Amino acid sequence: MSGISRRRFLAASVAGCAATTLAGSKKALAAGSFSGYPDGMGVLVDLTRCIGCRSCEAACNKEQNLPAPEKPFDDKSVFDETFHGGTQKRRPDENAYTVVNRYDTESASEPVYRKVQCNHCSEPACLSSCFVNAYTKTPEGAVIYNSKVCVGCRNCMIACPFNIPGYSYSSAFDPVVKKCIMCHETRLKNGLPPACVEICPQEALTFGKRKDLIKIGHQRIQTHPGRYVNHLYGEKELGGTHWMYLSSVPFEEVGFDPNPGNEPIINNVKDFLSTVPMVLAIWPAMFTGFHLLAKKQDGHGDHEHDVEEHHDEEGGAQ
Amino acid sequence: MSAKQILTTLMTALAFVMAVTMAQAFDDMPDQVSIGIMAQYFDAVEFDHEMHTELGEDCSACHHHTAGTGTADERCVRCHADSDEAATVSCRDCHLVAPFSAEQIQREAADVYQFHIDTPGLKAAYHWNCMGCHEEMDGPTDCQDCHSRTLEGDAFYHADAQASATEEGGH
């Protein structure tokens, strides 16, 4: 290899590396700048206040025009229902966007009730996983979806860290994903709290701006020492959720994943995704450059060698 | 007029004013309160205020510091130990029927010095206040002991007449 070509080779490599680094960092910066909608609305769920009356389930059913339930909403026997060999309690599905479960815990003498619904993540994994862009995170705070474009692939059901989206298995021809939308269409965008919040007799659900709810949550922990575990679940978990929780017992005892990490799910693939443009745009150019340089160097050698190589290739092909 | 006479007169006047104020306060006090402002799925609650005043040690057990009888709550007493009777002692003047309305959320956001940022709405205030005490003192704690469910309520809970009869029989 001659001195000139080596210098050009190095220069080309450095330029390529610089370009990829620059492209990468720019991408990461752009992707990292979204910090949710702090002015978006959310709900603070206080498990110490919930009495398991299931009125929120009834209100959700009415507001969202869901089918009639198998058992009336004042029937407490649903709390004894378990699935998958007793390992799982009730889950939201196509007929119920929210359910309340009862937990008999080690830490508390009284049962603890927990309402389950979409947590409306600041950076939703369902949204990232949807290849038809059916999901939208609205500035009001809700994670909504357009069932007209949903193709029923169920990627979002796998992506959701809280196992929330349900699927209309009952529909043979147009099955789509179904989940809580924080009453966005009928209430939230008109400045009203979700139906479940309004019906709650205990104000176990507090509606407000996410940033204010964080303040209120910490204030409750501070003013009632001994009532709560010192943690506001959802403030930081998975990049933050718009539904947050206070509990008197450790969160793992009432069915929460105690340590899902504070990174949004999208961050698991963000680094990889930012290298995609690099691979697609820069690698072809860079390797073409290497190839051309290598070819040019070959040009200095004798032609017999070239012919020999050609023969070899042909032999190999046969 | 001697200093003693003046003092006596003043004291008498003061006692008279206080007596009148107290009498007025108790005159204003309702014997019966019909709580129907939120009635829809459940009927109005006919609250026997007179009976409950005899049970409570003083008004602050329910009315915090607003009745002018002081307060024993260690969280409230720092500011409200000597609070006078408030202009209004009615629950709904502080605990709102619609605590999460857009107007209320705007109002709270505008008032940056607001200390009470977590005041419960009227429905929660009633349930907490009543239920907390009823559990302690063996008062009624079942929903329909205080307010019976309306037909609209039966439909809301998808509980027809038969289902609700079984439900009541079960208790």
What is the beta-strand fraction of chain B?
Answer: under 5%
| 3D shape of chain A | globular
Mean pLDDT of chain A: 86
What are the low-pLDDT stretches of chain A, counting only 5+ consecutive residues below 50? 20-33, 313-318
What general form of chain B does the structure show?
extended
CATH topology annotation of chain A: Alpha-Beta Plaits
Q: What oligomeric state do the depicted chains represent?
A: heterodimer
Determine the N-to-C terminus distance of chain B: 73 Å
Total of DSSP H or I helical runs spanning 4+ residues of chain B = 9
Write down the Rg of chain A: 28 Å
- Give the strand tally of chain A: 9
Give the domain tally of chain B.
Answer: 2
How does this structure look, described?
Chain A is of the alpha+beta class and 318 residues long. Chain A has a single domain (41-263), classed as Alpha-Beta Plaits (2-Layer Sandwich), CATH 3.30.70. Chain A has helices at residues 3-32, 55-63, 125-129, 155-159, 195-199, 210-223, 267-300, 303-317; strands spanning 41-46, 99-103, 112-116, 135-137, 143-145, 166-167, 177-178, 205-209, 243-246. A 3-stranded mixed beta sheet of chain A has the order 8-1-9. A two-stranded antiparallel ribbon of chain A has the order 2-3. In chain A, strand 4 and strand 5 (143-145) form a beta hairpin. With 171 residues, chain B is mostly helical. Chain B is 50% helix and 5% strand. Chain B is built from 9 helices and 2 strands, in the order H-E-E-H-H-H-H-H-H-H-H. A two-stranded antiparallel ribbon of chain B has the order 1-2. Classes of the chains: A alpha+beta (318), B mainly alpha (171).
In summary, what is this structure?
The complex is a heterodimer of chains A (318) and B (171). Chain A is an alpha+beta fold.
Question: How does the SSE layout of this entry go?
Answer:
The complex is a heterodimer of chains A (318) and B (171).
Chain A: H1 3-32, E1 41-46, H2 55-63, E2 99-103, E3 112-116, H3 125-129, E4 135-137, E5 143-145, H4 155-159, E6 166-167, E7 177-178, H5 195-199, E8 205-209, H6 210-223, E9 243-246, H7 267-300, H8 303-317
Parallel strand pairs in A: 1-9
Antiparallel strand pairs in A: 1-8, 2-3, 4-5, 6-7
Chain B: H1 3-28, E1 32-35, E2 45-48, H2 49-55, H3 60-63, H4 77-80, H5 102-110, H6 122-136, H7 143-146, H8 151-156, H9 161-170
Antiparallel strand pairs in B: 1-2
